[in-house]
Amino acid sequence: MSDDQQSDDAPETPDSTPERDRPEGGKPNDREAAEEKDEEAGKQEDKDKEKEKEKENERALAAERFKEFTRAPFAEEQGEDGPTDLAAASRTRRATRMLFESGRDLTSVDRSIISSAHFGDIILGTDARPRLRSGPVPAEELRRLRRVQVVPDGYVRLRKALRSRRLLVLGAAPGTGRTSTALSLLDEVTADAPRDTDGDPAGSPVRRVQPDDGIRQFVDQLRAGDEFPRGTGYLLELSLTRPGALPPEEMDLDELATALARCESFAVLVVTVGSAAGPLLAGRYGMLCPPAPTQELLMTRLRERLEERVEERVEGRREERGEEQDSEEQDSVEELLVRGEELARREDVVEAVGLKDLRPAEAELLASLLAGRLLGDLSQQQLLTGCRSLAADQAHEWFAGVDRALATPARKGARDGEGGVERTNTAALFHPVAFRIALAVLGGASHSAVSSAAHLLTWELSVQCDPDNAPARPLFCDDPEADLALSRAESVTGEVEVAGAAAPARLIWYRGGALPSAVLAEVWERHFPVRAPIVRWLRMLADDQRPQVWVRAAVAAGELCVRDFDHGFAELVRPLAEGTAHRRLFAATMMDQAAGHASHRKAVRKLVEDWSRSPTWTLRSTAAAALGYGNCADSTGDALDALGRIGVRDGGDQSLLAAAAFNVVRLLALPDRAQAPKVLRRMADWTQHKREAHQTLGLAAAIWLAETRVDKLLIDEPASSLGERGDWPLALALADTRPELAMPIADLLWTALNTARSKDVAMDALERMLRTAVRKDGTEWTRPGLAALLPALAAEETDRRRLDWLLRRMMNDPDDPFPDARARSLWWLAVNQRTRSGQEERSHG
């Protein structure tokens, strides 16, 4: 209808009465009254328009403000690097927690007890490592070595090289059996030399030598020919890890080889792999010594132990009964050996040992433990306790007395070259131990990330040890292969996440799940002065934006806090909880890791409860992040109470309400299936609350439910009940896996779609969910979840009209048009075919 028609057909009003009909004398007053009336009506109309405009602005402002409640809850503050990649953090956290699962009960080994424990007639000597001493090797030791030695792969090649060159530089990590291999080689190549038959060690053809003044002194002794007989095999161990120690030059080795050939002798120089030994091993005499195969080594040692023990028992019976020797002994050993192999492969024993490869001394101890268990001298618990000592002993060996060489004070004049001890090269001394600590904290990260963190820690250790001197930072001393060998690590090809995309990388791990916990326990509990540099280092890692670094560091820091919660809280948890958003998430992850230990759960929960009520904004934010993990409250109801309290305090702070809403949704993904209905009911209660802050919290949580992908929820379980739906919105994953939750979820989304301040954000979230039905390549994605949710969400005519409008908008989107066929398919999912009208049928084909 046009405006002209409206004017012509309008009924006559009193103002339209002809002037002649008006009373005399009333014309001017009536006109003024009419004008005043019109003016008042105009003012009122302007006021109404103003009020309507204000209301519209308020609605727009409320809608815009609501968007803030659904943005990244842990986005960094202004001027920082941006939101945290929660999906990558979730995957990293699951992988890292598995490294510490075996220590969740905080099982620790008192090494001082284990090293001298006496079970039955077995004495466990974890400290009984062979030490080199100058002098002949006893013939009995050589005979035992021939009987039990398990040769490594490439042994024949080593023997040929020694025979042809007379001199062999054998490189390996300490404890890998390099000394036994060297003795075995020398024993074979000197087989034609005269052997002692009376047990006199002076007649042994193999000798250990420790020349005080190096290789040149030994060459002079060989040339003199007075002290050492011809045809002898010499074992020398060169220590190149001491500050100032220099490897022999190639010319010195040539002279030694010539002297050995002149007296028809042989020599093996044992060195530790590393940058110092690199030139030696790369020369003509250098070769690497591979370790012996673990299973064969263990079974050989176990057979030896069983034969000794069974023979003792049989001898005892024969003496008591006067029986003759028979075949029972051999039969008994074979049966026990089979049972021992089965025992060694038991899951609890393998987990207690926690090492992929056993070194000779470790195989000796494990064989003794297994023999004691098979023969009834040890209980299963004693066996497991002894097995746990293997990793603890290795950690102790790595860190005991590392800086002993630096403990000698420098004498006056040392700086002027007049002798004395100068504290130099601390970086080279501390790098191996720093690398082991970094590997314990960041195991599973890329090799470059671990190496970079190790160099940062090397600097901190060097400064702590010698604060008056700036430590040198060698730039070309890294030897990746040596780092792996010296730290019992392995490098594998894998992937790391970079800006949300997977990229190939070389990942590094300990070769044994027990080593990370053993290293952290050794450093934190037995070497107190090293805590200060490690704390500073962990704070630096907390600022690293890469999930592969900061998440692993947070989990490891949580484990350290459990071992001394008072110190960890004062030095790590509290300072980080009051820092940036990234540091607050780091502190929350630490507390959740500590809450995983029953011994500390009560203390952590009390702390988080107090922080949820704290007047300090940062502490409430940290508490919200910790509550989302599900371990930091006595029950789901308590967690929801605390999150509600955090979200609505002071009318609902933007960042805190967003953090609270997000962490409410995280509780929906917990493994306990009984908790999800409780969380959904609480969210529905909030949306119906009389206070606006509670309503906003419930609506924001509903949006997070629709928008948050499953893989962003930091789920603990590697095999979640949500299955392979990591890239699904949580609402659709829950609707698909748990159909009984579809209706409560639909009710929450319906409320958000029908509330003025949240409807625009909810509509955008619904659109994004609809677009996940099918992947770009045409394969099915979240369609089963939409099939469960959409019918409940489009039950009424108005809901169907809204869905119709949304699908049309998606189809007509100029930037990303939604395919018509997919739109029709989604419509069919949402609307029952029997209730569709002809108009709807025509609209969607």
Question: What's the SSE blueprint?
Answer:
Elements: H1 3-9, H2 27-68, H3 86-99, H4 111-114, E1 118-119, E2 122-123, E3 135-136, H5 139-148, H6 155-165, E4 167-172, H7 178-189, E5 206-209, H8 215-224, E6 233-237, H9 250-262, E7 266-272, H10 278-282, E8 286-288, H11 294-321, H12 328-344, H13 347-353, H14 360-374, H15 380-399, H16 426-442, H17 447-465, H18 480-486, E9 489-498, E10 501-510, H19 515-526, H20 531-542, H21 547-563, H22 565-577, H23 581-595, H24 598-612, H25 617-627, H26 636-648, H27 654-667, H28 675-687, H29 692-707, H30 730-737, H31 742-753, H32 759-771, H33 783-793, H34 797-811, H35 820-830, H36 838-843
Parallel strand pairs: 4-7, 4-8, 5-6, 6-7
Antiparallel strand pairs: 1-2, 3-5, 9-10
> What's the mean pLDDT score?
81
Count of individual beta strands: 10
Shape: elongated
- Profile the largest sheet: 6 strands, mixed
Kindly name the structural category.
alpha/beta
Output the strand order for the largest sheet: 3-5-6-7-4-8
- Sequence stretches where pLDDT stays below 50 over 5 or more residues: 1-26, 76-81, 102-132, 410-422, 833-845
Helix fraction by DSSP (H/I, runs of at least 4): 55-70%
Distance between the termini: 34 Å
Radius of gyration: 39 Å
Beta percentage is 5-15%
- Number of H/I helices: 36
